[in-house]
Amino acid sequence: MNIRAELAKFLNLCFVFSSAYMFWQTYSIIADTHSPIVVVLSGSMEPAFQRGDILFLWNRNQYSKVGDIVVYEVEDKQIPIVHRVLREHHSTKNNGKQLLLTKGDNNAGNDIPLYAGKKTYLAKNTDIVGTVKGYFPQLGYVTIWVAENKYAKFALLGFLAITSLLGDE
Amino acid sequence: MFSLSQRVQYIGNFSMTIGLVIIALIIGSSHFDLFQKDILRNSQAAIANIKPIVGLRTSRFYGASNGNPKENTRIAFDLNTDLSGLFNWNTKQVFVYLTAEYNNTEKGTVNEVTFWDAILPDADHAIIKLENARSKYSVWDYAGDLSGKDLQFKLHWNVQPHIGPLMYGVAQGDDVIVNIPKPESKV
């Protein structure tokens, strides 16, 4: 077994992972958000967005408009919530704050029960992760499957290990 | 000859390239279809007969705080529109929403609120003829009251594609500006 060849292959693999990570970070900087691609986790926006859909976000707008689909995270939890802006109020001063009320299309009521503390509105500049600009169906289901299925992680790693061992006979 | 992994890699790369080309064709053709139907800027809607119903609510979920009641407004309205032109092979659904814009000059804010919305899953549902329909939401102004303000109503639409970017638009029509009365005081 040629140690050099194996190390070269490993280095190649590291290049692949680090360039994927760099692409992710570049997109984060361009879109001005820490999470520019999200996977839909709940059915609250059906039939528009199904669980597993991939959404591309953009966050360089100063104000959101009513009807925009925004992603926000409730303070303690890292779960992104994808809902539509129902109402917006913003001050006429330069760089005034904007307050938003959101609601999932498929939900009966608005999101006030979801907001942290006793807030009845979201603040655009602090709470909103980004606005949905583009959509790709169902490709994100892999990440949901890995996060929710106990054995999925091992299955995925095992699959990667086997393919890398069997490659280049 | 070629190893299995080489074949798999080649097939994988080729199908991904073909897939991206097909996706680009779908997005381009559906955009062009909407563009040449001239519906992106010229969709029409007739909103009429808006009757506001103003009342007071005391729950936190209706904008009240610390026991101070909050003025809530609902409306009855007529709506006539045909948005079937927005549907093509790449349209998954169209979301329509009736909003009202107003200024709150005492608090120095510009506001927009949604009174009613609907999901249109196909072109048949896109011909809307509503008479004396009720608003879905009870609306309150965050910083003040809606009464005494002039609200300008507009109908917006949002096309959700099967793949690609989301599209938004406003339906054109006569200006509809309604002044909201004070709530009737109960004796």
Question: Would you give an account of this structure?
Answer:
The complex is a heterodimer of chains A (169) and B (187). Chain A has 169 residues and is an alpha+beta fold. Chain A has a domain at 35-137: Umud Fragment, subunit A (Ribbon), CATH 2.10.109.10. Chain A has four helices and seven strands, in the order H-E-E-E-E-E-E-H-E-H-H. The termini of chain A are close together. The model of chain A has no long low-confidence stretch (mean pLDDT 85). With 187 residues, chain B is α+β, with helices and mostly antiparallel strands. Chain B has one domain. Chain B has two helices and nine strands, in the order ααβββββββββ. Chain B has helices at residues 4-36, 39-42, and strands at residues 45-57, 70-82, 91-104, 109-120, 127-134, 150-161, 164-165, 167-170, 176-179. In chain B, a hairpin with a 4-residue loop joins strand 3 (91-104) and strand 4. The N and C termini of chain B lie far apart (94 Å). The chains are: A alpha+beta (169), B alpha+beta (187). The A-B interface holds A 47-48, 65-69, 84, 86-93, 96, 99, 105, 109-110, 112-113, 118, 120-121, 132-137, 163, 166-169 and B 3-5, 60-61, 63, 92-93, 95, 97, 99, 104, 108-114, 117, 119, 121, 137, 139, 141-143, 156, 158, 160-166, 168. Strand 7 of chain A pairs antiparallel with strand 7 (164-165) of chain B.
